[in-house]
Design a protein that fits this description.
Distance between the termini: 40 Å
Radius of gyration: 17 Å
Order of helices and strands: HHHHHEEHHHHEEH
Number of helices: 10
Shape: globular
Helix content: 40-55%
Number of strands: 4
Largest sheet: 4 strands, antiparallel
Strand order of the largest sheet: 1-2-4-3
Number of domains: 1
Length: 191
């Protein structure tokens, strides 16, 4: 990792890390892409719709007692997501879409008061989670661009191009959440 970082320009290095390393096919986002088109490219309407749909899905999993991906959901975790539209949705300000990842262990995250442990519960990446516990210096802060790439793939698909993304906050950098900024063109805002 460090050799790649030393040999590549910073922006290229981050772009490489933000690639689709989870190998999720863009077809997974076809329904979202169609909804975005149905909304005439209105990103605000799409973000609102997406958040509402995600909250409804979380609520359904919670009521049925089903595991959502690797996460156990409670009414409190569903309310937490409902109250934070950047989570499982996004909020646009100007030409920037702000996204915050749902905590990996949401109920433990909500309940935790120790900031170090809270950071651990926030993070999805097994490499970073292990590093948070051991201070392993082989994992570098830029590694979080992998998570950023995972978050932006939906938006790359609906806009039919690769969008720039910036890591704003991560537990690895001492923050209590993972937060990203995706940049769209000004003319895409006014659709």
């Amino acid at each position: 990792m460090k050799r790649m970082q030393e040999r590549l320009p910073e922006e290229i290095f981050k772009k490489v890390l933000a690639g689709n390393h989870h190998e999720i096919p863009s077809e997974k986002f076809e329904e979202s892409k169609n909804k975005f088109k149905e909304l005439n490219g209105d990103i605000d309407a799409f973000l609102k719709y997406r958040h509402e749909q995600q909250v409804a899905e979380l609520d359904d999993y919670c009521r049925q007692g089903k595991i959502w991906y690797e996460q156990i959901l409670t009414p409190e975790t569903v309310a937490f997501v409902r109250d934070h539209p950047e989570i499982q949705g996004g909020v646009r300000e100007g030409n920037v879409i702000y996204l915050t990842k749902i905590p990996f262990e949401p109920q433990k995250y909500i309940d935790e008061t120790d900031p170090d442990i809270k950071r651990y519960y926030a993070c999805h990446c097994p490499f970073v989670r292990a590093s948070l516990l051991t201070n392993d210096e082989r994992v570098i802060p830029e590694w979080c661009y992998c998570s950023a790439g995972f978050e932006k793939q939906l938006f790359d698909t609906i806009y039919e191009r690769e969008l720039p993304i910036k890591v704003l906050e991560t537990p690895f950098m001492g923050d209590l959440r993972c937060r990203f900024a995706i940049y769209i063109d000004e003319e895409e805002v006014s659709k």
